[in-house]
């Protein structure tokens, strides 16, 4: 019975198409037009009526809408939608603290949060897509087979490169006023030179145009540009002075005495100084106020650098420790023992992930600042007296009168330097020029500009700092930067801390609220089993029913974790690969 | 009237003429009765009514009051109904009787309530219409007021084209060319040629096609019917034969395919492989099924059953056998592989570690050889079997089976012989082994045993090993009285299965590695360690805590990274001759002297410890000296009291720098920064993570592309300047319905498609079943 029925059904379904049906279909414009249309038009049998044309056009439009393509010809895009961005490029732009949305919200809220998340994701994708607009790539020196790149001299490089680049390698013979400290402005156009015996000079180094030059007739310990090249600070024998680009003294800040080293935090407009009296002081240059003065309590402070990622100041001490400071804390955020001898130089790379430190034990050690663990270490002859990271992560170390530049220091301890250069005197100041493949070296015999291929960032953000800015642009930028100034309290180890909820205060507030109200408004009401009749609400039964729903959250977690474990197992299995039984032997179980 | 009657008719109208006393007695009696009847609880006690004289019926007046005393109309009519006159009156009275009385009008409150309910119903229906729109507006990312604006859209090109005519001579020329070539002018989907070709199918062609289709259909139905019929046949033999023939055919086809189309052949092979895998996964042809078990019981007595079982096993074997793609290189490889892993174990046991085997090496050799021989013979056997199998393939079905059975028996015989030989070889003092052999032999004879070939082999090997071990023990005990170490035992035992342990690293190697370490490192570490010793000596005054700490933290691990030395082409001028070792040593000495005073590491550890201590929550002591005890100077508080009155602080949470000996991380809160943080979850959020995730991405133009920035900062409500925002009207419904319609149609169409799909799948299922 069943079979015959089935056959009947099949017959009905598999109805063979008759030729007239096919014809009919061809006559009617759309295959998917209703039966009613079919009836009305087939008897007329008039070919190509205008109405028919219209209806066909309609269908075409419909098709276009359905397929989402705008081709007139009706062709379909085989790969509809925009091209997806590769995962790793998206990761570059992903922010911390991403979490999945729970299902605890009302539909409206859920919808809004979802759309918001979608917007964020699309923004992220667009940003990743715009990577195309960064066409420049850095390139490094590559020696011939058997040739070490560090044997290539500056003269060789200068010969090979174009004239403008070649002109960037030069020497300034200034042997009168002793070892020089240097500082490049943030956009890399301007250079400050400060001889220890009082010689101060600012120049546009690319055009070799001297802007101002003077002798302050005092020892100058350090010199730093402030936010623009119109002002700079000089740490002189007793006090801190601020000059404008013409060398006119603007301020003499007597609160900052005996300053040895300075760092300028551009986004906070803070000038951090450390003195021989053991004080770390912060000066807000936008308002001219001292923000914080901390006694570090570890003697003379002459090693200092900033972490450009989170604006934390690193100080090196004589007992081999490095301490991290923020103006809002009176104690070091982190203190780490880096060397057995005193710390001689420090530098943190642009990402804020790696810190290089060198000590009296002649070691150069790279630390991971996320875990505070040493990564690599190497021994330099004589040890490094000054260190500097380039924008692309090259590390320059001044040992005696020799500059060594290292590549990929965070990955593996370098066997030999990437580049080397001997200068005419002991090295006193080192800095890579931003957005240029140039390393500036201040030493006893003056100043040397060294070409280091691949050192600088090739793509600059003109909104952020523009090497080619005009006066007007600079002024506008200044106003904007002042408006976007970050408060000094926000200098923390984790720069994204502001995006975090202050959990402790929140809990405290919640506790107070509970005390005030007498009950917890956010607490879940406990599960009360329904009362049932006929002895089904016995205490045992109630307990049982309660148990059924108890610990639901934990259960959910456990379920998830089990799933994850299973997945890992599977992956492991697939990685190991299933060996065929022919290959396996009973002896395999004793293999180790 | 008797008294009893009175009792049962409680409110019998009592005439007033009866004297007071009598009625009083009756009433009392009545009350008593009521009380009694109410005792059993079923009947509620009626409230005793108070009867008054005026209510009672008397000869002088009728009162309408009294229970059940209402006069109904029928009572009045009764006398009339008996007489036939008064028919009209009767009718009227009847009419009166049928008519119901008009109900009382409802009270004002009630009418109002009903009105309100109705009004609410109506209003809610009216409002419900708007629900959808309100929802949509709430969900909308952006609302632009006034709402009903016409959105300007670019018109599609086709619409433009239709209204467009060629004017210039060039255009006209182009159009004429297009027309000549019958290219589409207005609607560019299909050219007339294409359309014509679509249409062109003559009647004959159609008929031909129809006939073809009919034929195909008929054929299909025949085949289906045949298949169904064959499927119903229950004879196993028939199916067996059928399957075999099919297999043969497929084999032939496969051979052909091999020659003609190697790729397809490969695919076929893969299919076979898959079948093999499935077979291996299932227990289909193992002896575990219901049928197989029953047969196993029967096999003792029934030859056929035994055969059937063997056949099944054979089938399993065949199916699970790996299919080899015979290519020369691979074949040779396999040949290499197999003997290797067979022989390796013994070879390894031999040479490299003579100490482990000790004096007994020669004997082990013999045994090993024995085993080796056996293994080889076994492998040979296997090869033989394979060869015979291959040979027997092209033979006929029945003969194939016979051959197989024969082979099995032959093998069994061989095995038996071998076992006997072994028995002879091994010392004749092992009754257990012999017994087992005998049992086995018997089992073989009776054909009871169904253990697979491999299992047997394995068992034998084990037995053999055991016997060997025993021998060893005896011999060693006899010859030398040395205690046999366990290691030796292990080494001796299991010549087949115990793989030799390989040492991956030597001590020497490790030391060599250490030697590579930089000299300086070593010296400094030495320095530190000596200092450690000193400090330990000093601090061994009983402070266990400190000792523990120092145990946990390895001083050498505090600055653990080994420094590599760098070779530079240029050396600083001042240290040109630094390389000289003497000078180096000198320098080291100088440095040591310079830093003799300060032990940097120890200082740091002390600092860390104190920081840890400071960070720990402290116990609260509520001890009051002198309470419950003697007071005075130089008196200590008793332990008991301390235990009682000190509130222990909860253990501190683990520090972040717990596992970093060279780091102190400040655990104090940055209050200044915390002041800027959010400390209350804003409205819709109930979870910290969700809120943090929602604010994680910046919306500013600094971090976003222009487009993304605009989208992220788009206002939720936009109003047009100078436009009156009028309340929403009913036109919106029309809009919504008009936009909705196509969606509905699409859905219905989809549904149809789905239905047909379901039908087809269900049909397929039926077919398969």
UniProtKB/TrEMBL annotation, chain A:
Residues 417-495 form the BING4 C-terminal domain. It is found in: Nucleus, Nucleolus. Its main location: nucleus. Residues 1-78, 512-592 are annotated as: Disordered. Residues 8-17 have a biased composition (Basic residues). One of its GO terms (biological process) is maturation of SSU-rRNA from tricistronic rRNA transcript (SSU-rRNA, 5.8S rRNA, LSU-rRNA). Residues 18-27, 512-525, 550-578 have a biased composition (Basic and acidic residues). WD repeats lie at residues 336-377. Keywords: Nucleus, Phosphoprotein, Repeat, WD repeat. The keyword Membrane does not apply. It comes from the Eukaryota. GO terms for cellular component: nucleolus; small-subunit processome. The keyword Nucleus applies. Pfam families: BING4CT (PF08149). InterPro entries: BING4_C_dom (IPR012952), WD40/YVTN_repeat-like_dom_sf (IPR015943), WD40_repeat_dom_sf (IPR036322), WD40_rpt (IPR001680), WDR46/Utp7 (IPR040315). Part of the small subunit (SSU) processome, composed of more than 70 proteins and the RNA chaperone small nucleolar RNA (snoRNA) U3. Interacts with DDX21, NCL, NOP2 and EBNA1BP2. Scaffold component of the nucleolar structure. Required for localization of DDX21 and NCL to the granular compartment of the nucleolus. Part of the small subunit (SSU) processome, first precursor of the small eukaryotic ribosomal subunit. During the assembly of the SSU processome in the nucleolus, many ribosome biogenesis factors, an RNA chaperone and ribosomal proteins associate with the nascent pre-rRNA and work in concert to generate RNA folding, modifications, rearrangements and cleavage as well as targeted degradation of pre-ribosomal RNA by the RNA exosome. This is WD repeat-containing protein 46. The lineage of its organism: Eukaryota, Metazoa, Chordata, Craniata, Vertebrata.
Automatic annotation (TrEMBL), chain B:
Residues 302-329 form a coiled coil. It is found in: Nucleus, Nucleolus. This is U3 small nucleolar RNA-associated protein 14 homolog A isoform X1. Residues 392-402, 442-451 have a biased composition (Acidic residues). Belongs to the UTP14 family. GO terms for cellular component: nucleolus; small-subunit processome. The keyword Protein biosynthesis does not apply. It comes from Xenopus tropicalis (Western clawed frog). Residues 362-391, 403-423 have a biased composition (Basic and acidic residues). GO terms for biological process: rRNA processing. Residues 467-477, 760-769 have a biased composition (Basic residues). It holds the Pfam family Utp14. Keywords: Coiled coil, Nucleus, Phosphoprotein, Ribonucleoprotein. It comes from the Eukaryota. Residues 1-27, 348-498, 512-543, 733-769 are annotated as: Disordered.
């Amino acid at each position: 019975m069943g079979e015959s029925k089935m056959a009947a059904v099949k017959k009905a379904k598999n109805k063979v198409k008759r030729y007239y049906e096919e014809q009919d279909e061809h006559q009617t414009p759309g295959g998917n037009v209703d039966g009613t249309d079919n009836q009305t038009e087939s008897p007329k049998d008039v070919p190509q009526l205008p109405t028919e044309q219209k209806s066909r056009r309609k269908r075409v439009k419909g098709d276009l809408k359905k397929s989402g393509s705008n081709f007139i010809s009706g062709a379909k895009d085989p790969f509809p939608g925009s091209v997806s961005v590769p995962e790793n490029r998206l990761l570059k732009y992903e922010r911390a603290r991403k979490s999945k949305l729970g299902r605890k919200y009302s539909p409206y809220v859920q919808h809004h949060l979802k759309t918001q998340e979608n917007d964020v994701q699309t923004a992220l994708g667009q940003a990743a897509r715009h990577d195309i607009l960064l066409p420049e790539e850095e390139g490094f020196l590559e020696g011939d087979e058997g040739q070490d790149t560090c044997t290539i001299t500056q003269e060789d490089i200068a010969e090979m490169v174009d004239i403008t680049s070649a002109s960037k390698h030069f020497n300034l013979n200034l042997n009168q006023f002793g070892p020089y400290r240097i500082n490049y402005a943030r956009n890399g156009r301007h250079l400050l030179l400060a001889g220890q015996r009082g010689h101060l000079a600012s120049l546009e180094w690319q055009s070799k145009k001297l802007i101002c030059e003077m002798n302050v007739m005092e020892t100058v310990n350090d010199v730093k540009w402030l936010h623009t090249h119109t002002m700079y600070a000089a740490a002189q024998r007793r006090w801190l002075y601020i000059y404008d680009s013409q060398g006119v003294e603007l301020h003499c800040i007597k609160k900052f005495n005996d300053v040895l080293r300075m760092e300028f935090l551009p986004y906070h407009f803070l000038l951090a100084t450390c003195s021989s009296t053991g004080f770390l002081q912060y000066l807000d240059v936008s308002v001219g106020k001292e923000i914080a003065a901390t006694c570090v309590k570890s003697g003379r402070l002459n090693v200092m650098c900033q972490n450009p990622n989170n604006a934390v100041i690193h100080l090196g001490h004589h007992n081999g420790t490095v301490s991290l400071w923020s103006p809002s804390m009176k104690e070091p955020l982190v203190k780490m023992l880096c060397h057995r001898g005193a710390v001689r130089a420090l530098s943190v790379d642009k990402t804020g992930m790696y810190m290089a430190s060198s000590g009296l034990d002649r070691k150069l050690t790279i630390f991971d600042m996320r875990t505070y663990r040493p990564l690599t270490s190497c021994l330099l002859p004589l040890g490094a007296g000054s260190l500097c990271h380039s924008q692309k992560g090259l590390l320059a170390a001044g040992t005696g009168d020799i500059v060594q530049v290292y590549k990929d220091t965070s990955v593996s301890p370098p066997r030999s330097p990437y580049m080397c250069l001997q200068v005419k005197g002991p090295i006193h100041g080192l800095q890579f020029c931003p957005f240029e493949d140039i390393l500036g070296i201040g030493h006893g015999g003056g100043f040397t500009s060294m070409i280091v291929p691949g050192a600088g960032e090739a793509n600059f953000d003109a909104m952020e700092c523009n090497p080619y800015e005009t006066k007007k642009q600079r002024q506008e930028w200044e106003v904007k930067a002042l408006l976007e100034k970050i408060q000094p309290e926000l200098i923390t180890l984790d720069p994204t801390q502001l995006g975090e909820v202050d959990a402790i205060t929140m809990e405290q507030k919640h506790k107070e609220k509970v005390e005030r109200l007498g009950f917890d408004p956010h607490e879940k009401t406990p599960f009360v089993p329904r009362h049932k009749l006929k002895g089904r609400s016995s205490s045992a039964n109630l307990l049982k029913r309660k148990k059924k729903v108890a610990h639901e959250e934990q259960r959910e977690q456990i379920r998830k974790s089990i799933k994850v474990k299973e997945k890992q197992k599977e992956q492991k299995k697939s990685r190991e690969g299933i060996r065929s039984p022919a290959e396996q032997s009973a002896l395999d179980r004793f293999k180790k | 009237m008797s008294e009893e009657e009175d009792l049962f008719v409680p409110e019998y109208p009592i005439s007033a003429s009866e004297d007071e006393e009598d009625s009083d007695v009756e009433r009392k009696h009545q009350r008593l009765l009521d009380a009694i009847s109410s005792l059993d609880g079923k009947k509620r006690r009626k409230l005793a009514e108070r009867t008054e004289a005026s209510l009672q019926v008397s000869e002088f007046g009728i009162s309408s009051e009294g229970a059940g005393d209402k006069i109904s109309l029928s009572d009045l009519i009764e006398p009339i109904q008996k007489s036939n006159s008064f028919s009209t009156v009767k009718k009227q009275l009847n009419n009166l009787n049928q008519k119901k009385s008009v109900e009382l009008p409802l009270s004002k409150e009630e009418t109002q309530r009903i009105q309100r309910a109705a009004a609410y119903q109506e209003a809610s229906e009216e409002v419900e219409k708007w629900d959808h729109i309100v929802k949509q507006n709430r969900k909308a990312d952006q609302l632009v007021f006034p709402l009903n604006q016409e959105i300007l859209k670019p018109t599609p090109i086709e619409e433009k084209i239709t209204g467009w005519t060629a004017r210039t001579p060039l255009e006209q020329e182009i159009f004429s060319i297009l027309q000549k070539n019958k290219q589409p002018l207005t609607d560019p989907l299909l050219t007339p040629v294409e359309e014509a070709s679509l249409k062109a199918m003559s009647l004959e062609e159609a008929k031909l096609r129809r006939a073809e289709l009919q034929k195909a259909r008929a054929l299909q139905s025949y085949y289906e019917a045949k298949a169904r019929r064959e499927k119903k046949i229950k004879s196993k033999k028939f199916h067996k034969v059928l399957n075999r023939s099919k297999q043969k055919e497929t084999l032939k086809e496969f051979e052909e395919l091999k020659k003609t189309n190697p790729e397809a052949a490969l695919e076929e092979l893969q299919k076979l492989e898959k079948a093999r895998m499935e077979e291996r996964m299932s227990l289909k042809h193992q002896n575990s099924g219901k049928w197989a078990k029953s047969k196993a019981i029967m096999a003792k007595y029934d030859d056929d059953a035994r055969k059937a079982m063997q056949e099944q096993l054979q089938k399993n074997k065949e199916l699970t056998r790996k299919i080899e793609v015979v290519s020369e290189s691979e074949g040779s490889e396999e040949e290499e592989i197999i003997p290797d892993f067979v022989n390796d174990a013994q070879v390894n046991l031999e040479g490299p570690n003579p100490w482990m085997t000790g004096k007994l090496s020669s004997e082990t050799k013999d045994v090993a050889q024995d085993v080796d021989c056996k293994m080889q013979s076994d492998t040979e056997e296997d090869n033989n079997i394979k060869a015979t199998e291959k040979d027997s393939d092209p033979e006929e079905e029945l003969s194939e089976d016979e051959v197989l059975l024969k082979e099995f028996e032959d093998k069994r015989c061989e095995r038996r012989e071998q076992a006997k030989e072994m028995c002879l070889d091994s010392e004749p003092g092992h009754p257990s082994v012999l017994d087992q052999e005998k049992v086995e032999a018997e089992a073989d004879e009776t054909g009871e045993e169904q253990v697979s070939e491999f299992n047997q082999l394995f068992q034998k090997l084990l037995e053999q090993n055991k016997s060997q071990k025993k021998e060893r023990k005896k011999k060693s005990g006899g010859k030398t009285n040395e205690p046999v170490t366990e290691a030796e035992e292990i080494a001796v035992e299991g010549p087949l299965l115990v793989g030799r342990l390989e040492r991956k690293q030597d001590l020497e190697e490790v030391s060599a590695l250490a030697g590579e370490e930089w000299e300086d490192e070593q010296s400094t570490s030495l320095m530190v360690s000596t200092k450690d010793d000193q400090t330990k000596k000093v601090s061994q005054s009983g402070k266990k805590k400190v000792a523990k700490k120092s145990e946990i933290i390895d001083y050498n691990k505090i600055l653990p990274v080994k420094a590599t030395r760098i070779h530079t082409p240029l050396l600083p001028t001042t240290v040109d001759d630094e390389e000289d070792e003497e000078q180096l040593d000198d320098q080291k000495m100088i440095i040591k002297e310079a830093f003799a005073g300060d032990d940097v590491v120890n200082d740091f550890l002390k600092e860390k410890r104190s920081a840890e201590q400071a960070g720990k929550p402290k116990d609260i002591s509520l001890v009051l000296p002198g309470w419950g005890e003697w007071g005075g100077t130089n008196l200590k508080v008793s332990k008991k009291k301390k235990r009682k009155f000190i509130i222990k602080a909860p253990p501190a949470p683990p520090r972040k720098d717990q596992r970093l000996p060279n780091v102190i991380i400040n655990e104090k809160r940055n209050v200044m920064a915390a002041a800027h943080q959010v400390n209350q979850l804003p409205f819709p959020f109930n979870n910290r993570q969700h809120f943090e995730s929602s604010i994680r991405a910046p919306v500013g133009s600094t971090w976003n592309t222009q487009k993304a920035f605009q989208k992220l900062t788009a206002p939720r409500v936009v109003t047009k300047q100078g436009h009156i925002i009028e309340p929403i009207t009913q036109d919106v419904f029309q809009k919504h319905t008009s936009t909705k319609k196509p969606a509905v149609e699409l859905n219905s169409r989809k549904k149809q498609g789905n239905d047909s799909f379901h039908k087809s799948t269900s049909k397929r299922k039926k077919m398969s079943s």
